[in-house]
Amino acid sequence: IRNTGILGILISSGWSHGVVGCDIYDTGEGGIKLTGGVVEKLIPGCHYVENNHIYRFNRFSFGGGKFAISMFDGTGNRAAHNLIYDAPYLAVAFSGNDNIIEYNEIYDVMHEAQDGGAVYNHNGQAYLRGRGNVMRYNFIHHISTHTSPTRPSLAAGITIDGFNGGMTMEGNVFYRNAPAIFTHGPDTRIENNFFIENAQGIAMGR
Fold first, then answer.
1. pTM for the complete prediction?
2. What's the rounded Cα separation, in Å, for the pair 187 and 190?
3. Would the CA dihedral through 5, 6, 12, 15 be positive or negative?
4. pLDDT < 50 regions, the chain
5. Taking CA atoms, which of 32, 108, 175, 196 is between 20 and 30 Å from 5?
6. What is the pairing mode between strands 115-121 and 154-160?
7. Which residues contact 108 (CB under 8 A, 6 or more apart)?
8. CA 54, 124, 55: angle at the middle one, nearest 5?
9. Are 45 and 35 in contact (CB under 8 A)?
């Protein structure tokens, strides 16, 4: 899928849909967007995005929800074994509960952004709602910082935003990020990760 004006693939609600083995590039506004599951009852959507090659997915839009993989407003979905690179903003963004982000390689994204992460979580004003999400065994590297005279950079490998907690980050490899992880909120586990030549390993806010 290439040279689209907007998204490459949209999955809206439903159950157990998969996007597997696709090359998606030179799209106008994002790669794959999916929603699924019932957050209020923690019923999983069971959508999966696996083994895709996604790059240059922001020809017309440099932010505003246009990511390689967007999994907002759902629960129980999975992104695994994807290769994502060459974008000005976020690579994988998600909200809700019990989502799994695993075995992905992500690099050279966030190169025109000051705030966010290669993998990014935010639940809006629903603080503490993002429990049960797991980010494991990903290789995230070469996420650079960008400063300005008025604002420091908040770009990171993984960013947990909006005072969310109850998540797990384990077995990831972070190489040359700044910082590798930015998080705040209670009950988050950061275990058995590798931090190699990052400007900062873990930055924890309030």
1. 0.93
2. 10
3. positive
4. none
5. 108
6. parallel
7. 85, 86, 87, 142
8. 10
9. yes
Q: Are 118 and 82 in contact (CB under 8 A)?
A: no
Which phi and psi (to 5°) does residue 74 adopt? -150, -175
Q: Which residue spans within 122-197 are E strands per DSSP?
A: 134-136, 139-143, 154-160, 168-170, 173-177, 181-183, 189-191, 194-196
What token pair was written down for 138?
Answer: 């990903």
Q: Report pLDDT for 148.
A: 60
Give residue 21's pLDDT.
Answer: 98
Answer for the pair 206, 186: CB distance below 8 angstroms, yes or no: no
* pLDDT tens-digit map of 50-92: 999 999 998 887 666 689 999 988 899 999 999 999 988 899 9
Place of tokens 């931090």: 195
Quickly tell me which residue has 């090359």 as its tokens. 23
DSSP secondary structure letter of residue 97: B
Q: 121 and 128 in contact (C-beta within 8 Å)?
A: no
